[in-house]
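dude i think i finally got it to work??
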Amino acid sequence: MSPARPSASSTGTDALFHLILIVLAVVVPFAHAVWLGGNLATILSGSGSWAPYAPTAALMEPEQLWPSTSSTPLTVGRLIAPTTVTAIAVAVGGWWWVRHREAGRSRPVKSLATAAEVKPLLARATAAKARQLRPSLVTRPAGRLAASEIGIRLGDLAPGHQAVFASFEDVGLAIMAPRSGKTTSLAVPAILSAPGAVLLTSNKAASDAYTVTLEARAAVGRVWTLDPQQIARAPRELWWNILAEAATPEGAQRLAGHFVTATISESDQDFWSKAAQNTLTSMFLAASNTGRPVTDVLAWLAAPADRTPIDALKDIGEDARADQLEGTVAGAAETRDGIYETARQFLACLLDPAIAAWVTPNPDVPQFRPEDFATGRDTLYLLSKDGGGGASGIIAAAADAVMRAAVRQAERDGGRLDPPMICVLDEAANVCKIADLPDLYSHLGSRGVLPLTILQSYRQGQRVWGDTGMDALWSASTTKIIGSGIDDPDFADKLSRLIGDHEVETISHSHSEQGRSTSISTRTERILPPDRIRALPKGQGLLLATGLPVALLTLKPWYRQPDASDIAAASRRQTALITTRVLEHTAAPDGPDAYEQAA
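look at this
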């Protein structure tokens, strides 16, 4: 039997009852305020003594309580002042209620992690961990560590304002849509607060992490900029030996893999690409061990009959590789030409002399050495265009060489770099496609080499590393930040399931002939359903840290820091310099080469 519908009389009675409660809630405090105000006006005007407690008389018959007080001070004390105070109190209360109601609608805080549940990520616990991880901090007095010395600040716990940190052994992954704050709230703050060396990959320069952080990092160490595609029009003030890591078969194979991965995705690789990678591996190994520049590899690919790489491999004892390369050359012409043409496509960017100049010996500029970089506080900016093909292969190879050199240095130092190296791999799926990055994550953090890979979507990572590789990268990341703009329904549902369920109380009211009744029941529902994850506002992020409940963060962009005005001014100066270099480059009468020589 369904419950009876409420009658008109019972509904009217309930409405009258609520109205009476509202009136009493306003009138009773107001009457007390009138009594207090009248007494204060009488005492301050010196026209009488303190009247006995009688709020009703103060409101209805003031002349009985204060017969000697004139009407002007009595009116101010009894009516104007209480009315003003009450109005202000109502306004403030209304503002507070609306603000918190709207905050509750936009910030899905309920059942997410509290400060006690993420205590290992708060300042005190992170500072204690920093002392364990960094021997240089052991002798520092307690409570004297700056925020930049204890970890990477990820944001503030919402609600509240307690700072949340990633420790100096956490490896991070951020998935945030474009223009959702991934650079301003994650990349730039991590770079500005880094205690040691910094590596940044990016596909932008003006008004981005490059210009925002350049002057600040130049103040603490040397700045190196590898800009083969002239994103920032940076003058060529370094050269890097791209073949230095190719002296061993493993290193040569990794270098070849960077050029392959930069050109085609893992799912598109076939016989020709794998055969071309083997050929490049042999040629890189031969060139590296005979002191030849990488441009000689281009010459060998252009002339398959050239026996120089075969003889070089035999000279270093790589007879099996020499025989394999010789077999490729002596095989069917169609097969040989297909393999060599595929290899030429992988190295196509090096056909541009302006790009090749960054990775071939140049006595007029310093040589960038990854092994020296790992021990200081220098900064390396690696810039490349989206879809840069083989040019992004140079960027991936440089980033890989730096991180591997840092790991070797950490092993020499006893297991961990101190201070740690921060590697911000912004736009990693576009300009820094390191094929085995998910595998590197498993041990980089334990060496004090802390990568933060920033992607625009989960599927973007799947496109580069495949389903298995992206799942491995997700699992290996000890801190994961999910920002606004997650429009992938499958990924949003996956996140919703990871966040979990909670019990929700439901209060229902019913009316019958016997009167009004209230019942309370519970149901299980998602803490954050997929649509709420998709609607996560800009400036907030979900933090998934290993072994801890999911927390909601308020992100802290660099332009809200105390020194934001100085940082913004520095960014404007560097952006203006880029604009000037672009104009000079365009106006150079003899073309780009004349401009680079002048620079």
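Residues 8-45 form the longest helix (38 residues).
im so relieved honestly
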